[in-house]
Specification:
Layout: E1 4-9, H1 25-28, H2 32-35, E2 41-44, H3 56-63, H4 68-71, H5 75-82, E3 92-102, E4 105-108, H6 115-128, E5 135-139, E6 144-149, E7 167-172, E8 175-180, H7 199-217, H8 220-228, E9 235-242, H9 251-255, E10 259-262, H10 266-274, E11 278-279, H11 288-305, E12 308-313, H12 315-321, H13 325-346, E13 354-358, E14 362-364, E15 369-371, E16 377-380, H14 392-397, H15 409-414
Parallel strand pairs: 1-12, 1-13, 10-11, 10-12
Antiparallel strand pairs: 2-16, 3-4, 3-6, 3-9, 5-6, 7-8, 13-16, 14-15
């Protein structure tokens, strides 16, 4: 069977930036390897979730062919699954950020921690935070963690708000998604019950926030960071609590291919596991070039044993949130040179292999948040003619008309 590599570069899409000659970072970057595929490629420019600016969970689900409004029960389920926490039906799984606050005002939604610091904070929270029901907190990557609240009495509900400004909860029946919204407000809200029966859950989460703050302020990590003038981990932000298994249909059965995932972040690991993919055993590496080399090596290994490989690169999204557009286009150049270059050496377009390069959403480096703009998609396969360039502008002008939504990408690609 012909091979398929499906590469999602997180937040790769952007809006034009004045200092980049009114180009986006994707358009401005030198992409020699991507350009080598343009003689047999097609472009797409689908919407992810219409007028709503998607989070990464809904964007990845859509790219892989799962309608988020049909399957998503809350990002927390995937986040905790990817952390190895084994969420179960009825318990509440929540995404956690370690943040910095000044009183009730938010200074930063992200306080990056070393693995050693985060392990120490994980231990402190699990041992010192007291709640009337059982819970487990687990450290993830950088500032990201997971929380599972256990209750055998059916009292927990997904119908609660987030306390992280910039992510607004929306429900579609019993399905739950959060969407990127304005981050102008810096006051941290309390978590609220959004439907009858959710007050107990809101109270438990607010108590966890309050108790965690006390623990963080007394931690050795906080003390040492304050002495050295580093950003302070003194607050937790909770979002996207889930109590139900999303029950994604098995991707191997759905598309008749054996799938492997080369992903390093908990969210993407969770989605890959929930969809039935086999995970390659990798971790995110701090140095981008080393991380890309490592991912390229594992993609090569996966291609020896599987028909299709899902690959995810996270760093471009983080740079967008920090407004570092120059570093973002530099990262895209490295992705092209290191990762895509190695992938292309393993693909044979003459044998019908396919490469897809896209993103889960666009992240504006000017706004420092996700937007609802359509996403650029490159599909390289021998069945296509040539295209001029891979970038947002060209995708908007010359694209496959039948790929209207991100959920259309995968069904189209697997038929090639």
């Amino acid at each position: 069977m012909a091979k398929l590599v499906f590469l999602i570069v997180d937040g790769m899409g952007d809006r034009p930036i004045k200092l980049l000659s009114n180009k986006t970072p994707l358009e401005y970057a030198d992409k020699l390897n991507i350009n080598s595929t343009l003689t047999h490629a097609a472009l797409a420019f689908p919407s992810v979730l219409g007028k709503l600016a998607p989070e990464s969970d809904s964007g990845v689900m859509a790219d892989l062919g799962y309608d988020p409004k049909r399957y998503s029960t809350g990002r927390g389920w995937f986040e905790c699954l990817g952390l190895g926490m084994a969420p179960t039906e009825g318990d509440l799984s929540v995404r956690v950020n370690i943040a910095e606050a000044a009183g009730s005002k938010l200074k930063s939604v992200r306080t990056y921690l070393s693995k050693e610091e985060f392990a120490e904070i994980e231990k402190d929270i699990n041992e010192r935070v007291k709640l009337p029901i059982e819970f487990e907190f687990k450290a993830g990557e950088g500032y990201r963690g997971g929380l599972i609240v256990h209750d055998g009495k059916g009292r927990l509900s997904q119908f609660v708000s987030n306390n992280e400004p910039g992510y607004t909860v929306r429900f579609f029946g019993d399905k739950k998604l959060s969407f990127a919204s304005s981050t102008a407000k810096t006051k941290i809200p309390r978590i609220k019950a959004l439907k009858p029966g959710a007050a107990f859950t809101a109270d438990i989460l607010n108590r966890f926030i309050s108790e965690s703050k006390k623990v963080l302020l007394k931690s050795d990590v906080y003390r040492k960071r304050k002495e050295s003038g580093q950003p302070l981990p003194n607050y937790v932000l909770l979002r996207d609590g889930a109590v139900h298994d999303p029950k994604l249909p098995d991707i191997n059965e759905r598309y008749g291919r054996r799938w492997a995932a080369v992903v390093g972040m908990p969210l993407e690991k969770g989605i890959a596991l929930a969809s039935g993919m086999s995970l390659m055993d990798i971790h995110e590496l701090d140095d981008l070039s080393e991380d890309l080399e490592n991912k390229a090596e594992y993609v090569s290994k996966a291609m020896d044993a599987y028909d299709a490989v899902y690959v995810h690169v996270k760093q471009t999204d983080a740079l967008s949130h920090l407004g570092k557009y120059a570093e973002k286009y530099d990262a895209i150049e490295k992705i092209d040179k290191i990762l895509i270059g190695r992938i292309l050496r393993r693909l044979s377009f003459s044998d019908g292999d396919t490469l897809v390069v896209t993103c889960d959403h666009r992240t504006s480096s000017d706004l420092k948040r996700h937007t609802n703009d359509n996403i650029p998609v490159l599909i390289a396969n021998k069945k296509f003619g040539s295209v001029k360039e891979f970038g947002e502008t060209e995708c908007s002008k010359h694209h496959i008309k039948s790929i209207k939504k991100a959920t259309d990408i995968m069904p189209f690609v697997v038929r090639l």
